[in-house]
Structures are given as structure tokens and as C-alpha cells.
Amino acid sequence: MQLGRSLIVWFSKHLLALILILLVLIVGRYAFGPASAWLRSQTEAARTLPAQNAAFSEALHAFEEYARRRQAQVEIRTRALRRSPEDQLRRRRSEIEGAIARQEAARLSGMQLALAAANGNSASIFGHYRAGTEIALLQRERAYIDTLLAVSLRGDRSDLAARRRQAVEQLRTSHARWLAANERVRVLNRRFLAGPRNFVCRSARPALGCQNYRALAAARAERDAALAANQSALAAIRNIDRTSAALMPVRAAAEDASSVFASRRQALEARLRELNRIAADNWMLWISKPVLETLPTALLILTAAIFSPVLIKAFLYFVVAPIAARRPPVRLLPSDRGEVSSVGSTSAVSQRVLLTDKQEMLVVPEAVQSTPHEAGKRTKWLLNWAMPLSSLASGMVALLRIRTRHPDFVQLSSTQDPLAEIATVAIAPGSAMVLRPRALRGIVQPVGQHILITRHWRLARLSAWLTLQFRYLVFHGPCVLIVQGRRGVRLERAGAGRGINQAATIGFSAGLAYSVRRSEAFGAYLMGKQKLFNDSFGDGQGCYIYEDLPRDAKRGGIWGGGLRGLGDATLKVFGL
Questions:
Q1: How many CA atoms lie within 13 A of 573 on its CB side?
Q2: If both were cysteines, with which of 21, 234, 487, 529 could 548 make a disulfide (CB 3.0 to 4.6 Å apart)?
Q3: pLDDT 10s digits, 519-534
Q4: Phi, psi dihedral angles at 385 (to 5 degrees)
């Protein structure tokens, strides 16, 4: 039974494998060839279409410049033909045939035009369309000359309008003469016995008398002459009008060459549209065109993103930092006694803080490890209600207030950062310490006597603007500050003067002369291993506190600390 099931499974697996192999072979035979040919055609089109498009675009631009210039020349030449004598017209007519033959030789065949487009030869493409335009212009000029030569009314063709005015004037004058002569005939025919007398004079023709008859004959002759002149003038007007009508369409066609240029321009534009349509259907160009169009901008943005931080850091290090280092130091409380000391041992992961019945502790709840059962515990929502935003930004909210009835201790530890250690710093009455609240975990103060925290702004100092340190928070004694630092917290005397990494500074005595110095090595600052400034303390009694491992020691690099670094800079402005 087991053997039969195994045979069925083996047979089924190999049958499926055979079917899969057949499908692959069939697809490879019947689909790979057409797909490969299609891919080659797409690749070839993607390679040649941009050059063709550019060549036709340049040819169109050159043709438009040529059309604007040539059209004005054609209009001037056509107007000159109307004033040319017949022999000059015939000579020009014989030259046109040779000019057409030369332009025909300059035109490209379909294969030559396609080759010029593939090679991106815009000059040859422009020459082809210019030759076609010149041929059409020459043919129009030839037809115009033929019309001028075929006109039956010769003479100066430019005086047709003047001659028509003369004929009209002759028509009007002859008509007036005819009217006058006809009036004289009518008057003579109304005289007494004019009819019989005229009959006798016409029949007998006597030598004497018949003055009325002779005057009537003269008036009739004048009337007939005026009528003949009138008819001659009318015939001349009609001949001139026929000549003008025959010249007008040919002249208009010869003078208005815009249609010739428009037809060639439309042919170029149609070819460009066809190339654009083919390019739009090419999937390789559809992908590569936006990439190539936006690549320079992307490279420029990337270059700016790479080198701008370096340039900004170099400007800050070599220009801003020396100016800030030369500014006078800040001394917040010159009368400060500087009596600050470490309570108990040095910093440790877990710290025992002693409390008497006259003291109370305000501490963040997460730092508490153990407390006496009999100790009173309550919540204090803010460290200082006068500075709610500073309390919120430093994390000193929802604090645990602890009071004992007799001396006891509270065990504190950093439960969220495995590298953090706790230290306690005692500030004697009359002494004060500038502290960054980010390192503060709690305070010990006398019962009923809230710790005094003052704010000191230095907006008018140039060094404050250069270092972005505008506000200082000063904690006044008597009190015990519970501070936290990474890898350890150090309390050292300033003495004649000391300098430390600005990123490690937690606080310093308010009576010390505080200033900044530029970090020693540009490379370390550029790579983000050091801050731009080192804090400098001196010229007074007091101490400074710093942590062994700054919390942003591994952050930064050449390109800064990102949004978190921007947030830290904002907190620094307000002394947090």
C-alpha cells in the first residue's frame, strides 16, 4: 500500500515537471522570438527617435527664420516684375527653368531624408524643405511672367490704373461733346421751314444759301465723332479691366507667398507630430524621458544636500565660532558663593538619598526603586507652576512628593536608560547653580520652602545669538539636586579655568564666568564627534557638572542630527 502511494506521488511529480518543461519550451519557441524582435525595435527606436526629433525641431526653427526673411524678398521681387520691360521678363523666364532644375537636385529622396533624420542632420533636412519651397516660388513666378507676357494690351503695365483714368475722362468728355452736338442738331431742326429747306439744299445743292443745312451737317458730324470717341473710350476701359482681371489672381498668387511657406511648415510640423506619437508609444522612452529630464535637478539637489552641510559647518567653525569665542564671558550672579558639593559617593546606577523629617523629595516616579511604608506620598503635577512649559519640556511633570516622619532614605535608579547613573548635588544657602532641566530627575528641599528657580535672559548679547543660548535657569539653595547622566556624573571645581565638551555639560555655578571656545579639531566637528563649542568656566568660586557620555555623542555626523537635532537646538534656546 505504501509502495503504491509512493509510486503515484513519484509519477505525479515527474508528470508535472514534464508539463512545466513543455510550457517553458513552447513559450521560448513561440514567444521569445517576437518578444525579442519587439524589444530590439523598441530599443532602436528609443536610440534614434530623440536625435530625429531634435533634428526636425532644429530644421523647423531654421525654416521659420528663413520663411520670415524670404517672404519679404518675394513680395519685393513680384512688385518689381510688374514694372519690368518685356525683354527683361523673357530673360528672367528663361533663367527660371535652370533654377528649378538646381533646386530639384538639392532635394532629398525618401531614403536620404530618413538617413539624415536618423543621423540628426538638421541642415540637410532644412535644405530639403527649403528646396521644395524655392521650387514652388519659382513656379509661381513663372506663371506670373507668362501671364504678363500673354496679356494682349501691351505697354507699361504699371500705368493701367492711370490709363483707365484717362479713358474714363475721355468717355466723360466725348459724352459731353455728344450732348452738345446733339443739342445743336435739335435746335437747327426746329428752325422755320428747316425740313423743306434742308431737303432742297440736300437735293439741289445750290451754291448760295443753305447755311442752316451746312450748320446742321457740321453739328451731325461733330455728334458722330463724339459718339465714336465715346465708344472707343468705353472699349479701352473694358480692355483695361479685362487685363487687370487677368493679372489680378496671378499677381495675388505671386505676391502672397505665405501659403507656400505654410504648406512646407505644416509638412515639417506633421513629421514632428508623427515622431512625438511614435515616441509616446515607446515604453523605453516613456520611462527614460522623465528620468533624463529630472536627473539634472535631482543631481543638483543631491549635491546641495551633500555639500551644503559641509559648507555650513565650515562657515560656523571658521567664521562664527571665533567671533563667539572672543565675546566677554557671561556671569549671571557675581555674588554667588559657589558652595556646591556632591552628597554621598560619586554617581551610581542606584543611589540612596537620605531624607529628614524636615525635608521633602520631588522626583519623577520612574526613578523610584524603594520608599518607606510610613512615608507620605502625593502627586505634584509641575515642578514650578511659574514655568509650566519648561517643566513640561524637561519632563518634570506628575512628580512624586515624598515626606518622612523620621530620618530615612529613598532608593533611586535610572530604570529606562541602562547607561544612566544618578548623582546628588547639594547647593548651600546663598549659592546657586545653572542647570539644564533635561538632566534633572528630582530635588530635595525643606518642607514648606519651595525651591527658588530664576530665569535669566541674555537677548542683547552677540554671543547669545551666535551660540543660540538666550535663557539660563538658575536653581538657588538650600536644596539637593538629583541629576542623571550617562556612564557617570562628575562634579569638578572650576579653579583658574576649565573647558569641557558642550554636549556633556549639565550645569555650573551661577557665579562662574561662562564662555564658549571653539572645539579643537575641525575634522572631529565635521564628523559630528564634537560640538562646535566647548564650554569654558573660570574666574570664580564654584563647580561645574558634566556627564561622562553625552547622550548625543553618537548622533550627528557630517549631515547633522535630523529633526531630533533641530529639537535639541530649540530647547537650547530656552536653556532646557
A1: 7
A2: 487
A3: 878 888 888 777 788 8
A4: -70, -15
